């Protein structure tokens, strides 16, 4: 039995009385210690997928098993880093992380919980900013806090929902390197959702494309057989990197063409225009 | 057109505004047949109360700030009760759709009822003037706190609630650590509006119960035909209300920036 299993998972939303499918027949198996990236278009249902694994949403059909047990609601055994940081703005960096640590390690003495919190602030290089509130931090720093909070909970699996997509390119690259460093320091099971194929290849053991919606599903899993630690400059010239990149992008483009043909088939556009 | 800036315009312009009102007041009081006391008459009749604001010469003859203090104490009691009732009620309305559906209509019906209507009911219920005044202040002043708290609770971003869910915070911890701080800015808007109403109600309550205070003094001076003191009371009530509102918005803005 794999660490995390999704079997024929489907999820849709009801809007104006009609059912709009978002995800259909998602099958996914992730082993312990694996880093899996799921790459797809914006709006394809990536956040829905991570919310299902986190237990914030329930699937319409199919089942999700984590460590052999069916997921029933959210819990700290699955640490989530949300796209928009989700820090509590009235708490300092230290307090935001401590809130999670206090909750997960309730039996520890207070001093140990503090030390644990400080260790993770250190890990993301935020010791200087520990007593600041999220409003005083840049987007990149906030995302580090969110990452530190999720890591400090020592969850069985780490779910990263486009954690870097709101950041500028330079900050993004720095944080990618940092995630790569943290991953090699502490081996964790991680699911990364991203709209950036390069980010997926740089960080993950496996890369799985998510087809364009509606009714998105996972494409073939592609193993990233590039040894770690991976260097972002060197990787650009690696023929394996280019091959994986081409494969995934071509798959995603083809899936979008199919999606558009499906929409045209429904008669959204007049036939004459559709041809041009 | 460029905006012209006067020197010291934050002092000179309000002074000019107040000056023009005093001029209008003087003209109105000088028209034949007018019973309105002129500004000068008002000052002459009131200066004893203003210059010795804490003096107590008799039960019904005290300095204006002493009367104000009595009123403020009564307002404080009613206001605290209003907040203690309004906050939990607002939370229930914001958190539970069932509760909101059940009680929103009755709240909308009770909200516009005037303090003049509540006070006799208070007198019937409590028999004494002070508790019925406190009851009236509380029941009239709590609505802004109730409604703003409810709006605040409903507009908590889903992200914060997700944090609470992922961490599996208990209900109590979710309330203390997430709901309460996230709602605080809205609640303070409610607190400020509630205080304004509480101060509005005090005058009516004191008039009807005869309790000592600015409102009681106003009514008594009306009955004693000393019309200058009515104006003194009106100005005092206005200034105190203004100061209370300023103080509350200062506190409010501190919470907003957090």
Structural overview:
The complex is a heterodimer of chains A (276) and B (258). By secondary structure, chain A is an alpha/beta fold. Chain A has two domains: 4-77 and 157-268, 3-Layer(aba) Sandwich (Rossmann fold); 87-154, no CATH class. Helices cover 39% and strands 22% of the residues of chain A. Chain A is built from nine helices and ten strands. The longest helix of chain A is centred in the last third of the chain and has 27 residues, at 239-265. With 258 residues, chain B is mainly alpha-helical. In chain B, strands 1-2 form a two-stranded antiparallel sheet. Chain B starts with 8 loop residues before the first helix and ends with a helix. In chain B, a hairpin with a 2-residue loop joins strand 1 (56-58) and strand 2 (61-62). Chain B contains ten helices and two strands. Chain A binds chain B through residues 54, 56, 73-76, 78-80, 82, 84-86, 88-90, 99-100, 103-104, 133, 153, and chain B through 159-160, 162-163, 165-169, 173, 177-178, 181-182, 184, 258.
Which features does this protein show?
heterodimer; A: 276 residues; alpha/beta; Rossmann fold; 2 domains; 6-stranded mixed β-sheet; 4-stranded antiparallel β-sheet; 10 strands; 22% strand; disordered C terminus; B: 258 residues; mainly alpha; MetI-like fold; two-stranded antiparallel ribbon; 2% strand
């Amino acid at each position: 039995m794999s660490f995390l299993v999704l079997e024929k998972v489907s999820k849709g939303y009801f809007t104006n009385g009609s059912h709009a499918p978002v995800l259909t027949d998602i099958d996914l198996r992730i082993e312990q210690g694996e880093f899996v990236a799921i790459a797809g278009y914006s709006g394809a249902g990536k956040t829905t997928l991570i919310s299902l694994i986190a237990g914030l949403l329930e699937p319409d059909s199919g089942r999700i098993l984590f460590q052999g047990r069916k997921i029933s609601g959210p819990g700290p055994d699955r640490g989530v880093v949300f796209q928009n940081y989700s820090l509590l703005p009235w708490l300092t960096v230290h307090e935001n992380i401590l809130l999670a640590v206090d909750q997960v390690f309730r039996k520890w003495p207070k001093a140990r919980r503090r030390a644990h919190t400080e260790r993770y602030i250190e890990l993301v290089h935020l010791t200087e900013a520990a007593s600041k509130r999220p409003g005083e931090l840049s987007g990149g720093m906030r995302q580090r806090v969110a990452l530190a909070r999720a890591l400090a909970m020592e969850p069985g699996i780490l779910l990263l929902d486009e954690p870097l997509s709101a950041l500028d390119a330079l900050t993004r690259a720095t944080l990618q390197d940092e995630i790569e460093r943290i991953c090699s320091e502490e081996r964790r099971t991680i699911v990364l959702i991203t709209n950036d194929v390069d980010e997926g290849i740089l960080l993950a053991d496996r890369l799985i494309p998510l087809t364009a919606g509606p009714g998105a599903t996972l494409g073939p899993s592609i193993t990233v057989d590039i040894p770690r630690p991976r260097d972002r400059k060197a990787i650009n010239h690696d023929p394996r990197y280019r091959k994986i990149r081409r494969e995934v992008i071509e798959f995603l483009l083809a899936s979008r063409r199919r999606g558009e043909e499906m929409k045209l088939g429904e008669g959204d556009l007049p036939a004459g225009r559709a041809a041009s | 057109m460029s905006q012209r800036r006067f020197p010291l315009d934050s002092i000179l312009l309000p002074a000019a505004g107040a000056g023009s009102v005093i001029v209008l007041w003087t003209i109105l009081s000088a028209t034949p047949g007018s019973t309105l006391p002129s500004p000068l008459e008002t000052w002459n009749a009131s200066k004893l109360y203003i210059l010795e604001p804490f003096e107590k010469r008799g039960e019904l003859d005290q300095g204006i700030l002493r009367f104000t203090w009595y009123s403020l104490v009564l307002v404080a009691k009613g206001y605290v009760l209003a907040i203690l009732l309004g906050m939990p009620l607002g939370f229930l309305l914001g958190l539970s759709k069932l509760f909101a559906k059940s009680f929103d209509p009755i709240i909308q019906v009770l909200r516009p009822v005037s303090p003049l209507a509540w006070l006799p009911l208070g007198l019937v219920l409590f028999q004494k003037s002070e508790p019925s005044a406190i009851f009236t202040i509380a029941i009239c002043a709590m609505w802004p706190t109730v409604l703003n708290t409810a709006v605040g609770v409903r507009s908590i971003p889903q992200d914060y609630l997700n944090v609470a869910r992922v961490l599996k915070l208990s209900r109590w911890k979710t309330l203390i650590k997430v709901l309460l701080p996230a709602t605080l800015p809205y609640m303070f808007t409610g607190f400020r509006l509630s205080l304004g109403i509480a101060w509005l109600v005090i005058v009516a309550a004191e008039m009807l119960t005869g309790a000592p205070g600015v409102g009681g003094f106003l009514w008594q001076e009306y009955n004693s035909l000393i019309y200058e003191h009515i104006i003194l009371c009106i100005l005092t009530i206005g200034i105190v209300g203004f100061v209370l509102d300023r103080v509350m918005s200062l506190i409010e803005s501190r919470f907003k920036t957090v």
